[in-house]
Design a protein that fits this description.
Structural class: alpha/beta
Largest sheet: 6 strands, mixed
Bound molecules: ligand AR6
Strand content: 15-25%
Distance between the termini: 16 Å
Number of helices: 5
Number of strands: 6
């Protein structure tokens, strides 16, 4: 049910890919920039509409748009926490990102979803802590529902790929 790959998430064919966005939903660098570039302007148009209707997307929350030209049907935009040293509820906020993205995926009948390593780029969340949170949040959600058939962790760098593999095998060995 859980796969780990080293790839560009804009190339992954799943029902929904998750974007590590910022609160404005207006695009940015990193994976956010790559998704908007590859997906085309329809994604930004929908993001603008969402902001007009419901305001900015707060940290830990998630919203959904079309996938535009991407192979994925939908993009789920979530806003990860900026790392401030660990005393700003960053861990809970990152858990919320994974959980709220999965809740939205189920709501839109998505069977497969791909996650990047949220917050581990310019938001500087420590990669090992983020990997454990990602694996725990996804595993706990999958234990509660049979609606999602596949979750792919799409890692862009080798460190994240190795860390996600370690955290997943630690978790599987502990149960
Ligand atoms: N496919 C998969 N993963 C990627 C890709 C890609 N094409 N490109 C980068 N990554 P970041 P954040 C990885 O900085 O830390 C944006 O400007 C990257 O190696 O994209 O959550 C937003 O607008 C890293 O492991 O997101 C926000 O302002 C991971 O994606 C801010 O960055 C996340 O890195 C969000 O920062």
């Amino acid at each position: 049910m859980i796969e780990i790959v080293k790839a560009d998430i804009t190339k992954v064919s799943v029902d929904a890919i998750v974007n590590a966005a910022n609160s404005s939903l207006m695009g940015g660098g990193g994976v956010d920039g790559a998704i908007h570039r590859a997906g085309g302007k329809e994604i930004l148009e929908e993001c603008k509409l969402i902001v007009t209707l419901q305001g900015v997307c707060k940290t830990g929350q998630a919203v959904i748009t079309t996938g535009g030209y991407l192979p994925a049907k939908y993009v789920i935009h979530t806003v990860g926490p900026v790392w401030h040293g660990g005393n700003d509820n960053e861990a809970q906020k990152l858990t919320d990102c994974y959980r709220n993205s999965l809740v939205l995926a189920v709501k839109y009948d998505c069977k497969s979803i791909a996650f990047p390593n949220i917050s581990t780029g310019v938001y500087h969340f420590p990669k090992e802590k983020a990997a454990k949170i990602a694996v725990d949040a996804v595993s706990e959600f999958l234990a509660e529902t049979d609606k999602i058939e596949k979750v792919i962790f799409v890692c862009f760098d080798e460190a994240n790929e190795i860390l996600i593999r370690i955290k997943l095998s630690e978790r599987l060995n502990s149960v």
